[in-house]
Amino acid sequence: MIVESIDVFYLSMPQVLDIGDGSQDTLLVRITGGGYVGWGECEASPLVSIASLVCPMSHSACKPVQASVLGQELGGVDDIARIGDLVRENSLDLLQADHTLSGIDTAMWDLLGRARGVPVYELLGYRCAFPKTPYASVLFGETPQETLEMARHMRRLGYRAGKFGWGAFGRDDLQADIDQVVAAREGLGEDGVLLIDAGTVWVDDVERASRRLPVLQDCRVTWLEEPFVSGALDAYRQLAAASGTVRLAGGEGSHNTYMAAHMIDHGSVGYIQIDAGRVGGITAAKQVADYAQAKGVTYVNHTFTSHLALSASLQAYAGVERDHLCEYPIASKPLAVELTQEHLLPDSAGQIRLPDAPGLGITPSPEAIVKYLVDVEIRVGGKTLYRTPDL
Amino acid sequence: MIVESIDVFYLSMPQVLDIGDGSQDTLLVRITGGGYVGWGECEASPLVSIASLVCPMSHSACKPVQASVLGQELGGVDDIARIGDLVRENSLDLLQADHTLSGIDTAMWDLLGRARGVPVYELLGYRCAFPKTPYASVLFGETPQETLEMARHMRRLGYRAGKFGWGAFGRDDLQADIDQVVAAREGLGEDGVLLIDAGTVWVDDVERASRRLPVLQDCRVTWLEEPFVSGALDAYRQLAAASGTVRLAGGEGSHNTYMAAHMIDHGSVGYIQIDAGRVGGITAAKQVADYAQAKGVTYVNHTFTSHLALSASLQAYAGVERDHLCEYPIASKPLAVELTQEHLLPDSAGQIRLPDAPGLGITPSPEAIVKYLVDVEIRVGGKTLYRTPDL
Prior knowledge:
The structure is a homodimer. Chain A has helices at residues 46-54, 77-90, 97-116, 120-123, 144-157, 174-188, 206-210, 213-218, 233-242, 257-265, 282-295, 307-315, 334-338, 366-372; strands spanning 5-12, 25-33, 36-42, 133-139, 161-165, 193-197, 221-225, 247-250, 271-274, 298-301, 325-329, 376-380, 383-387. Chain A is of the alpha/beta class. Chain A has two domains: 5-119 and 365-387, Enolase-like, N-terminal domain (Enolase-like, domain 1); 123-338, Enolase-like C-terminal domain (TIM Barrel), CATH 3.20.20.120. Chain A is globular and about 55 Å long. Chains A and B meet through helix 1, helix 2, helix 10 and strand 12 of A and helix 1, helix 2, helix 10 and strand 12 of B. Strand 12 (376-380) of chain A pairs antiparallel with strand 12 (376-380) of chain B.
């Protein structure tokens, strides 16, 4: 079969708040071929990804993403990798292309899985999908008391692991951060797995990050996530050398496999966190998972959006039994919750299992698409390059 | 003063050809403040950069670029760096933002230079701008004979250094590549400085690249540029260890200072090539120039567009006498030539000198803008987020 169409849908909450919550909008990708339909999602800035899909060519290495995908043969998994390589070559100078490819690649895996009647993880070569231990992922509370209550709430919901991040953490005085981490530990209980996400707040300042190490060690934090921006490999390496029992986690900013490998090789992270909606799709995510295995680094998904994106991000390391933690957003906006017909809910043991169903096993809800759809039109030189498509 | 307005103009040749010629379109940036006007350019994919300037917020770390610039205090050079940091923080998850910031940062330097009546290189701390030796930068000919004639033409025009790149180089059989390089050397003459640009054609395949080393060494090629994509640091390092007298050059794909530093530290390049229109502007380019000095690596501009972009890229290392080579496009499309009122032409000694004039010393031509302007309109949710502004 060939890739017959690529349609993208900009979905958004009616109001987007100025908080670190990535579930407030999304770009949904629908691909058709051979009578089948596949779905994927691109992380962040839907309008910009739409523009990169349809923009006029600037030169031979700066073509719109769709030019390398539409009409391509999609006969097997090798074709997905080949199409990804084509996009990277033909859109070399189009910075946004990696994000756009991510949703397209994911939709091609979904389509191929549905066409063959097998889950994506089987197409990836995994014999089965091991259950994952979800960690509840939330933003820090406004106050330590609020964080304490959120952590207790996590435990009541059955989560053994919880991650707190963003908000004011790392920005104000040291004592405020200490109080927040202590509150999170208290709320999670002594046996909870506590994870802290600094959201790149210290950019590349090792000294500011280091001051938080004692409280993280005292509170037995498993990982400190994104103390720095993705490019600050030296800072990562220096902090990792000093962080003792607290391992560093990072990698969600990786928009290709090289960046993720650099985080492992030159940044000394203990956990590599990959978002299939940003790294270049499931193809690239699987390559990073393989590399992490070879290097003894633990792979974890990064997901802060819908359960379609969650399924996509889990497929890449579904068959890796050792890497059992998974990010699981528990305070998503209604858009992210309503977007899919199926949901990946914890089982009776509190574990997350991928659907034993064709493709991603998750299908967008037409009603949700209609409800949250944002009308977009892009006109260049008198021609309409994009208009929100019909469902 | 404060940044009062940011206007961007999509300019394009009437027809964009499927060749590696980056002079076929551009995104021109105009910034006003305190009664002054500054100009800059963003490299590649104008529509996508426009979208990133005006897109709706996705979350607190994914805001439109203009949100971090408009209304900001612009009292001195530190403010330009501060505004750049704001963009990187507030648009952390907006991949295209680095390209867009590049033109904005450049325009702010131009504006500040004009307001103070001094060239940008003085604002950067350089006492003077040393003349640079231009290398003529062209695409390989269709045949070795065509390449030979282009090289001879370069010499007749007075250039002592020439770079050939892209086209079919590296794609076909080895002999075709050998014939091309030999022809370029013959045309340039024994005393010419010969540079070869592989345009990332071997992605990260060290073996394929290595096969070309003998002819590059035999023809005394000064540098082999971009054998691999920017992220393939291991491949760069391996090839550099085997390349002998031929040094590796790369870095044009760097869209932040970290990537450029990684090319130096982990990729072992001998020449770091930076495009101010992509790396984050003149601020980031100057940081890379300083880092290159400290590491003993030669800095070179990357420029394949207008003389406004050329001036911007030269400012960053204007005061570094040792790094005397500069890329100089000699076969640009009429858009790139007509775009500016002034041009940086070789002097009687064949050298390029930056204007001793306020800002970048180069002003866009209103007639050229009108002639090449592409009408763009972006509507989201019933609102017009962008419409090509009036001159």
